[in-house]
Amino acid sequence: PQASIIVTTRPSAVRRIPGKYVGRYAEICGFSDTNLQKLYFQMRLSQPGCSGEESQDRSSAEQENLVEMLSRNLERHNQITAACFLPSYCWLVCTTLHFLYFTRTVPPSQTLTGIYTSFLRLNFSGEVLDSSDPTHISMMKYVAKTVGKLAYEGVMSRKTCFSEEDLRQCFEVEMKTESELNLLEVFRSDVFRFFLSPCVQPGKEHTFVFTIPAMQEYLAALYVVLGEKKTLAQRVGKELSEVIGKVSEDVAVVVNIVSKVLPLRFLPVLFNLLKIFPRYFSRVSGKDRDAIAHTMAEELDAIAHTMAEELFKEEDYYNDDVLDQINSSILGVEGPMRHPDEAPDDEVFELFPIFMGGILSRRNRAILEQLGCSIKNLAAFEIAKAMKKTVIRKGRKGLPPSELMDYLFFLHEFQNERFTAEAVRSLRAVNLSSVKMTPLKCSVLASVMSTTCHEVEELNLTSCNLDSSSLRTLFPVLLRCKALHLQLNSLGSDACKEIRDLLLHDKCVVSSLRLANNPVGEQGARYLAEALAGNRSLTQLSLLHTALGDPGAEAIAQHLAQNQHLQELNLGYNSLTDTAALRVVEVAKRHETLDKVHLYFNDISEDGKRALDSLRMDRDGVRALVFLTAGTDVSDYWSHILNVVQRNLPFWDRERVRQHLALLLQDLESSRSQTANPWRKAKFLRVESEVKKMLGKLQDGSL
What we know:
Elements: H1 11-14, H2 34-45, H3 56-75, H4 79-83, H5 87-102, H6 112-124, H7 139-156, H8 164-171, H9 178-190, H10 192-195, E1 196-198, E2 208-210, H11 213-225, H12 232-244, H13 251-258, H14 267-276, H15 278-311, H16 322-331, H17 351-359, H18 362-370, H19 377-395, H20 401-414, H21 417-425, E3 429-431, H22 439-449, E4 456-460, H23 468-479, E5 481-485, H24 493-504, E6 512-514, H25 521-534, E7 540-542, H26 549-560, E8 568-570, H27 578-590, E9 596-598, H28 606-618, E10 623-625, E11 629-630, E12 633-634, H29 638-648, H30 654-673, H31 678-700
Parallel strand pairs: 3-4, 4-5, 5-6, 6-7, 7-8, 8-9, 9-10
Antiparallel strand pairs: 1-2, 11-12
Protein name: NLRX1 protein
Pfam family, one: NLRX1_C
Domain NLR family member X1 C-terminal: 634-695
């Protein structure tokens, strides 16, 4: 009675307070102004230290960029603007962005599933839907049973927009008792708008969508893992069989259960049978237990199958990985907007299986227990066991890079070290080319791969936006890789310093290292030269198009004599002149194992070519690949050189390539005129034709 203000998140409770005690009602509507949303994001994302160990200048620039992209997306009045009307969803957006952009620890301190589970605890911990209802069902359990069902059916039918009819069917309004309708009314009043909101997309104004898209997949996963996907008959059948097994202990409970499925007139008969033939029912219960165990195994296999099917769905193979999808959903997609009449892309639900795995982790199960959503240890163990039959087996097949990243992220979210170790042990080749390897993805890859210590035959990180920080994070993984592809990553001298430390480590097994199309430069070459001098595992090193220049090549040559294992060195397209090229080949002549040096597309004159030819003739074991000719014959490596050009053309200066091809063509024609052998002339004409074809395509832009 002394209270002057009552604050509640439950509008349905307000109706229970007698009107005579209340003088004024006020509803606080959240961030109705997008400027308030922007202010919140600026304050939250500008907190110091959120980017960990990186320099302050870089972290500030990244934070400002995030706020700017988020502000632009809010101004477009997309669905996220409607979602961030609720301040707690602003918290979820910021926490997710922190996770995506500023995770640099191995293993990551959070999981995405953990963020969503914590978010739900923040809003619904300890709450029951209606304290006056005898069932005392928790708010979150009710959401999982109802909204989870809608979410799951949407995932299965690949839809994100729901009509009023969809909602009616999902909540089974026509089949509910009076008490169930009361619960539904409380839910609609207090919780509905938190999970579902009107769609703002033109043409879909009368439909509903999940306020945060990923929440649909989280609730669908929770619905499946909690076993709510079973039919009523399955749930009652299981309950009935369990109780019949305890028939001698409590007959009244049996009657209570059976009354759900049998007409009342049969109850006296059943009651007497239970008293007269308890042993008979005991035998029946034993058989039922076997049948239930078989049924449960089938259900667990079905869950694992569902998880695997969604995780490895072939039509999703060429989408962005899930972390990039989440990033786009929050920050928007930069570039021209889609025309309203243009057909939308198919909906992708790759987070659904990842959330299924994440919900089964011990920490998330403990939080869900507090929310009234109990997942028993045994159930989690059995599901994990069933998953091994399907998820790990399907994960062993060759996956496209983005799907492989999703698979690794799934293993991280699952937080089961033994399961992850078994899955990772089968990955002998890891191809993540063209996946944008953010700090989080590097941390996930390092964490997942650290569960075993097996050697990796090949790790392909071509065009993955790597930098020196990425290499530091991945250092323990890189040590165990035999073939390492790091092309097209803007790796400069700082990154080469990390690579030097990697190659000089006593546990390094890297035998093939490709650094093509990186701005290594002179200083980077010095670091790599130091590595060559002390490394004992490397046999192939590609520094194709890495801006070495003569000083960089001199540094390599200077330390090459101390190396005893290198077999192939590629210094093509590095602006080397005659002096540097001759110096490298002279050292290669004296090297015990080096037998192939690539020097094509450098600034080597005709005199230089003749000098290199004479060095090659002195020792047949050293092959210097400079031109398409070898004296008065075609080089055995002409097709290899042209293939290298064709593969790298998108990343090279086209005019310079055209000039080099013209020089190669002149050299071919000159060498052809010096031979009288008709067989050799035919070979020259064939290669000339290939070069002319490439020049023609280059000229008209079709290559």
